[in-house]
Amino acid sequence: MVRHRATNYPGMNLGGGDRPEQVKGIHVSHEFFRLFGAPVALGRTFSVDEDRPGGGRVVVLSSGLWQRRFGSDPAILGKPLSLGGEIYTIIGVIGPGFAFDSAPDLYLPFQADPNSTQQAHYFNAAARLKPGVPLQAAQAGLKLAAGEYKRKFPNSMGPNNAFTVEPMQQTIVRNVRTALLVLLGAVGCVLLIACANVANLLLARATVRAREIAIRAAIGAGHGRIVRQLLTESVLLSLIGGALGLALGAFGVRALLALNPGNIPRIGTDGSGVTLDWTVLGFTGLVSVLTGILFGLVPALQASRADLNSTLKETGSRSGTGLRQNITRALLVISEMALAIVLLVGAGLLIRTFAALHRVAPGFDSHNVLTMNTSLAGSHFDRTAAISDLARQATERIEALPGVEAAAGTCYLPLEGGMGLPFLIEGRPLTNGPVHGGAGWAYVTYRFFEVFKVPMVRGRASPSGTMRAHPV
Q1: Which are the contacts of 333, defined by CB distance < 8 A and separation ≥ 6?
Q2: Most buried residue, 8, 146, 300, 432, by CB count within 10 Å?
Q3: How distant, in Å, are the alpha carbons of 7, 29, 37, 112, 131 from that of 135?
Q4: What is the dihedral of CA 67, 71, 73, 77, to 10 degrees?
Q5: Interhelix angle for 177-208 vs 323-359, to 10°?
Q6: Taking the CA atoms of the chain, what radius of gyration do you get in angstroms?
Q7: Domain residue extents for the chain
């Protein structure tokens, strides 16, 4: 593995200017930008020395933060930036179009200290394999490393824990891959229905133009020339439809992503990362040409093979449709109906699932609940007492505001997960590893359950007037 990077994602308070702001920062190793091909719009990224412990407080801004907060100031390099009460120096700006999965606002050097004894921290690692090295070889290497790690730190991992590696694409799209494939299938069905409709229209048009085509053939036009003419018309019609669909699709996707992006990774703020590039234009053009050829070929072939004598003898008020044309139309109509039924059934199931999800009680009530985030940094908050005092004062001042019924503090909102911590059960012997199990923890103040109207099945929260944090 020739390149690697490590990252973690802290929230940070950005000071200065007319107002403070919480931003998403990301600690990265110095190889991060080169590994992922991040374009540098201004300045530079971190050096090897700056990524070492004590390497200095430097920061690289994202293009979005540079534009939003600093008005794309070209003289931003070297200026100080207040983050969490500490002063950092701006050394670079990442160019637009770099969409990392967490959409960070700024980048800080990782500065990992191998001699640190701090616990309860985590980070992600990525690497690029050398040419010709298969994924299985990387898996085998990590398996050996995990065994060595367990021997050196016997109580740090459970018996079923291991080191593993997987492709970056699989990591990013794991939670949305199935949904995106279902949507792709639905779009494909809609395209096939539209193409079947167009093919039917082309068959009908070819029937109307049968006399014209017969006259062309009678004066010397060959079958190939007639087919090329009709295919040209079909492809031109398909390209026009593709261009209109591309414009409507771009507008519709942008509106949907701005309304509710869901959990699709790497789409940027309000879907800004989803753009019409040459890949999208090329794919649309290719699909338009192929559909124009495939669904215009049968009508063109049937029109070019019409019997000249019978067609020319027909009067202008009569037009015949051959057996082959009738069979083709029937097959197209059958295909349309089958695809339409599949889409209708799928849409009905999706609507039913959506309604069922809305009826599921999550165990809390978020109606009229407002939230805010803040990050605590600096030596003042090294002690728990300072954090407790801040939480108490903040909730008391918020509860004093008109219209506020209750206020509480927590490190994780409902459905956001929690900190994973192992536990031991008193009186139970250890039979499988150093701990009995693990659970998600979230520290909350006592009115948390009242704010979210969480029913107490057993026991109670702290009595009113006290300020305690509870693991849940």
Answers
A1: 196, 200
A2: 300
A3: 22, 23, 21, 27, 11
A4: -60
A5: 150
A6: 32
A7: 3-128, 132-173, 177-359, 379-471
Q: Which amino acid is at 328?
A: T
Please tell me whether the overall predicted TM-score, pTM, comes out greater than 0.70 for this model: no
Contacts of 421 (CB under 8 A, 6+ apart): 120, 438, 439, 441
Please report, for residues 21, 364, 408, 434, the alpha-carbon distance to residue 451 in angstroms, rounded to integers and kept in the order given.
Answer: 25, 9, 7, 37
Backbone angles phi, psi at 335, to 5 degrees: -60, -45
**Cβ count within 10 A of residue 274:** 19
| Consecutive H or E run containing 326 | helix 323-359
Tokens matching residue 285: 């053009």
Q: What is the DSSP letter of 380?
A: G
Residue 81, helix vs strand vs coil:
strand
Q: Which two tokens stand for residue 148?
A: 């060595």
- The H or E element containing residue 201 is helix 177-208
105-150: pLDDT as tens digits: 899 998 887 777 665 556 778 888 888 888 888 888 888 888 888 8
Residue 94 has pLDDT above 60, yes or no: yes
For 335-357, how does the pLDDT look when each residue is reduced to its tens digit (9 = 90+)? Answer: 778 877 877 887 778 778 767 77
Asked if residues 60 and 51 have their Cβ atoms less than 8 Å apart, the reply is no
